[in-house]
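Retro notes
What went well: the complex prediction finally ran end to end.
Inputs used:
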Amino acid sequence: MKTLKYIFAILILSISFVSCSDDDDNTPVEVNPVEGLNKIYEFSEADHSIEIYSQKTGLEVGYNEISIRIKDMASDKYVTNAAPTWMPMMHMETMNHSAPHTMLSNSEESTVYKGYIVFQMAGNATEYWEVMLNYNLNGQAIEKAVRVSVVQPADGLKKTQVFMGSDNTRYILAFVNPKDPKVAINDLQAVLYKMETMMSFPMVENYKITVDPRMPGMGNHSSPNNEDLIYNAATKMYNGKLSLTMTGYWKINLKLMNESGEVLKGEDVTELNPESSLYFELEF
Amino acid sequence: MKLSLSVFPLRGIPMGCLLGAMLCGALTSHLYAQETPADSLKLIQLNEVIVISAGKQLDHQKQRKPLSTLDEFLESSLSVNMVKRGAYAWEPTMNDMASERLVVTIDGMQIFGACTDKMDPITSYVDVSNLAEAQIGSGQQGAVFGNTIGGGINLKLDKRNFKPTGWTGSLESAYESNNKMRVFGGELNYSDEKFYLNTDAIYRKADNYYAGSDEEVLFSQFEKYNFSINSGYKLTAGKSISATLIYDEANDVGYPALTMDVSLARAVIGSVSFNQDTLFGNFSNWESKVYYNNIKHVMDDTKRPDVIIHMDMPGWSETAGFYTQANFNKEKNHFFFKLDGYYNKSYAEMTMYPTNSNEPLMFMLTWPDVRTKDVGFYAEDHIPFEKASLKLSTRLAYHSSTVADDFGLNSLKIFYPEMDKTNTRFLKSFSAQYHKMLNDFHFNGGLSYGERAPSVSEGYGFYLFNSFDNHDYIGDPELNTESSADVNLSVTYKKPTFEITAGANYFHVFNYIIGVVDPSLSTMTIGADGVKIYTNLDYAQLFNASLSGRYNISNAFKLSGSVSYHRGIDNDGENLPLISPLSYRSALDFYKNQYSASLSVDGAGEQINYNPAYGETKTAAYATLSASFGKRFFIKDNDLFVKTGIENILDTNYSSYTDWNNIPRMGRNLYLTISYSIN
C-alpha cells in the first residue's frame, strides 16, 4: 500500500510536470478556421474562388452543416464582406422545390460563412440539387448556381423524417446531434420545419417532441432520464437529452406535439406497439 | 497468526467431537473451542474452526469425507450455509448473510471475486489441498479480517512451519459415483528447523450429477486444478521470511441454476511475509505480509441451447494489500494489534451479439473499473478474570472507491447525473464479549456494532442479471453505509461426556442494502421481469437461534445433534430472501482401532417464511441419510487410509432454501477415497 502511495505520488508529480510544460508551450498559433472540415467543392472564377466545406465527406439527405469561403485572387485573402445568401433547389422532372435552410452567417469566423441545409431527398440520374449562391465581391453582385450531389447516408440509418402531420401540414424533422453518440446522457438536438409552399420552409417553434430510445434487438430495452425535445430560441433548435445505456443499434421513437399538446405524428411505444411511426435511428 | 497455535490440539479430537465443538460455537459462539486456562494466550477467540488439511497425516480418519470439496467442508459447519448455483463454487453465508456482508480472506489476504453474478466466491479459488483450517468468526468477531456485518471466514493455508519432519509426501485419489468425480492429488514437503517447502497439487473433474430418482442435472459438470507452493526460511532465531504462491484454474464449469456457464475462472495468489517473535521488547508474534492476487473470470453461453443473445462477459479483479500485526501483553491485558490495507481494481464488461449481424455489437461496462482503497486498524484486548473473561475489540477503517473508467462513469451518470467519481467512508466496528464460567455452565454474551461499505455490485453494478428473482440490478453509488448492532447470548452446560448449548443472536441492520424494484425502468435482459436498484432499507432484522449437543456414549461411540432456527424481515415486516427454515442434523460417530464409521441425518423443515418478490418459492421439508466407513492401514512406516461412504442413501429428490432457482441436490452418491502418505 505504501509503495502504491509512492507510485501515486510520483505519477501525480510527473503529471503536474507535464502540464507545466504544456503551459510554457502555450504560444499563440494561427488557428485554421476550417480545421477538421472536408472541402467538398471548389470553384475557380476569373478573380476569385469559392470553397465549400462540410463535416461529412459529401452532402447527404438530412441535416448538413456547410461552411463557405470566398477567396479574392487579387489580395489572396478570404473576403469578409461578401454577405452571401443561398437557396437550395431540387430540380425534379415535373417540378422544383427548395429545402429548409438557415441564412449564411460569418459571426463566428469572419472569413467563413456558415449555415445548414436539410435535404429531404437524394438526387438521382434525372433529378438533382442545385444551390443558388448570391454574394458581393468588390462591390459587384454575383450569382452562381452550384450543382451538388446529395446521397442517402452510407449507414442507411433514418435521421430525417418528412411527413404529413394530423393537421394536414407537411413537416421536416432532422437529427442534428449527437454526431458521436456515447454510452451516457447525450445532448440531443434536432431541427423542425414545415413546408408552407414548394419554396417556403419556415422553422417551427415551440412544439414538443417526446423521446423514447429503444433497442429492438434487446426486447425493446429503453433507458431512463431522457428529456423531450423543446425549442430553444437561442440555438434555434430543439434540445433534449438522450440516454444510451450501451453501444449498438438504437431506435429513437418520437412523438410530435403542437403548442396545445395535440399529437401531430408518432405514437407511444407499448407492449402492443413496439415502435412509433416517427423515429430516428442511431448506431455506434 | 496467533490464533493458529491453539488449533493443533484440536486436530486430535475426532471429527464427531469437533462437530460437537463446532456446534457449541455455532451462531452465538464466542465459546472457546476448547477448555483453556484463563491466563493462556492460546485462546481461540473465534466461534468455530473447521479442520480441513486433507492429505495431512493422521487427519483423514477424523473426517467423514476427506477429499470432498472445500464447499462441502464449509457446509459441515452449522454457522455457514452454502448458496448453490450448481455443483461448484458455492457461496458461503453466515447468520443468513452472504458475500457482501461477510469478509472472506485467504491467510489474511483480501481477495475479491471477478464475477458480477457471484459465480466465483473466493472460496472457489483454493482447494482443501492448500488449507489447514477455516477460521470462522460470527458478527464482529470476524472484524479481525476486515469490515463485516455477518461475520468473517479466514481460510488458513497449511504450512509446515519449521517442524523437523524432513521429507514427507502423500498421494490421494477419490471417486464419486454420482457425478463420476475423479480427484487426484499429491503433495511433497520438506521441513527442517531452518527451512521448509510445501508443494501440493489437486485435480478434480466431474460430469453432470444426478438428483434423486435419476434426474440428470444438465450443466453441472466442472473441472479444476490447483497448485500451491509455500516456503519459509529462518533468518536467525526468532526471525523468518516466508512466501506463498497459489495457482487455481477451473474450466468448463456448469451452472445449472444460471443461464450461463464459465469457461475460465483463474486465480494467481501470492504473498511474502516476515515474521519475528518479538518487537521492541514488548510486542510478540510480529507478522507482516504483502500480497497480490489476480483473478480472471469468463462466462460462457456457447454450450447452452436457445440462447437469444449470445454474450461475452469477462471480469477481472486485482488486489494488492498488506497487513502487519503483533501481540502485546501488559498485566492482565492481552492486546492484539493489526494494521491492514488493500487496493482493489474490479472491472467487468459485457458484449452482446445482436441477432441481426449487420447491427453493431452491444457493449457495456458492468463493473466500471472500480478502485477500492481500504486502510484499517484493528485492536483487541482480552482480559481474563477469575472464571471469566472479557474481550474488547475495535476496527477503524478508511475506505474509498473511485470509478476510474470514463465510459463506466458516464454510463452510471445516466442514472445518477450528479454522482461523484469517488466515495469516501470511515468505517467503525466495536465489540464486547463476556464469558463467564459457573460450575458446569458457561455463559457467553456480547454486544457489537459494525459498518460496511456497499460492494462493487451494490455501488456500481450496471444491469447485472439475477436469475433468482429474474431482475436486472443496478448499483447506486450514493448508497449509505450499512451498519449493524447485534447482540448474542449462549449458555452451555458441559460435563465430560455430555454437553448442550443453547444460543441466539440478533442483528438490527440499519440501511440494509437490497434490490428494490423501480417500475419506471426498462429491463435490459430479454425475458427479465423488471429492474431493481440497490437501495438502503431503513432497517432489517435478523434472528438466529440454535440448540446443539453431544453425548459420548462410550469411548468409541459419540452422538451429536443440533437444530437451528432463523428469521429475517425488513422494515415492513416482509421476509428477507435466503433465510434458512428450521434445520437440523444429527450424527453417530464410531472410532476404534483404526476403524471409523458414521451415520448422519440432515434435514430442514418446510420453508414457511419465504418471499416471492425475491424469486423464492416455498421449499419443502426434506431429510437425507448418509453413512461412511474408513480404515487406516500401516505399511512399514507409511500410512494407507481408505474411506468409503454413501450420501443421500434413500436417493431423495430435494432442494433446500440455498439452492438457486430450486435446482435439485445430488441424489445417492457413493464415494471412495484412498490416500497413501510417506512419512
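What we learned: The helical segments of chain B are 7-11, 15-25, 70-75, 406-413, 456-460.
What to try next: split runs per interface for comparison.
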